[in-house]
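Complex 306.
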Amino acid sequence: MALNILVIYYSQSGQLGEILKNMFSSVKGETDITTIEYKPVKDFPFPWTSDQFFDAMPECVKEIPVELKPITIPDKPYDLVILGYQPWYLSPSIPTTSFLKSDAAKILSGKPVITVVGSRNMWLNAQEKVKAHLQQLGARHIGNIVLADTNHNLISLFTVIRWAFKGQKEAGRWLPEAGVQTRDIEAASRFGPIIANAMVSGQTNQLQEKLLAAGAVHLKPTLIVLEKRGITNFRKFATYIREKGGPGDAERLPRVKLFKRLLLTGIFVLSPISGLSAKLVSIFRKKSFREQINYFKGIRYESDVI
Ligand SMILES: Cc1cc2nc3c(=O)[nH]c(=O)nc-3n(C[C@H](O)[C@H](O)[C@H](O)COP(=O)(O)O)c2cc1C
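Predicted structure with flavin mononucleotide bound:
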């Protein structure tokens, strides 16, 4: 009998949809896949305007949901759920949070779930939040696959900004393509057979190990340091901005603009310095970083790790 798989996700550009489609392209005969894409009633713009983009930060970080369009999930005995999501501001994207907090997410209760992340390269805090939701929902988290932009951190920041504000994912004259590289999106097809074998043999306990052996998660120690610094600042700024109102409130715009200026300065002016200091920290505390890398590559959940 074919494996019954529910694939559920949100994507603005279609990138995550492509990743998920490729993942099971080589095991079509062995799987019966139901794909559900959920959308907010008032969807986020793509490409973004600058004000809307930076205004989204507080609600991402504080995990404040928006209303989603109703979805109908066919009533089938799903063997496995694939939850695809993307980080926004080091947190689950607002549509992801909205889904995980909605009644529809109860479909995950008691089910084996594999998370698939389509990110730039900073997904640790978002994944911890998603793990917490899965635990609350009573889902069995059995695997995690992270696709990220493999270009240098600074290059990927330039290209993701071009993509978000102009919609241009393709490589230009000076810069490579934005986001997850086409070859990596295509290579996601290697994960399907590993997942199908684990499900059929019932050996889901060893699935994450097998996925890691196939390169499911790459993690640089410097990004752990940068992400911890980033999320600490975002949390403070999220509270500061929300003191002046909710999304789109004109009252909070000056604070959103201040956040934008500081973020861009942090990224493009201070980033080389903070990148170097992060590298030094990771070199001097090798053992602690080895443990952290193992933790973040795995699927175990401990609260307040980041
Ligand atoms: C508002 C916003 C914030 C983002 N923040 C992050 C982030 O913190 N970390 C990261 O790795 N990627 C970040 N990204 C990139 C997304 O995770 C994602 O890879 C990209 O938007 C493509 O996703 P899509 O499939 O929805 O088009 C951000 C994108 C947007 C639009």
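The chain has a mean pLDDT of 96.
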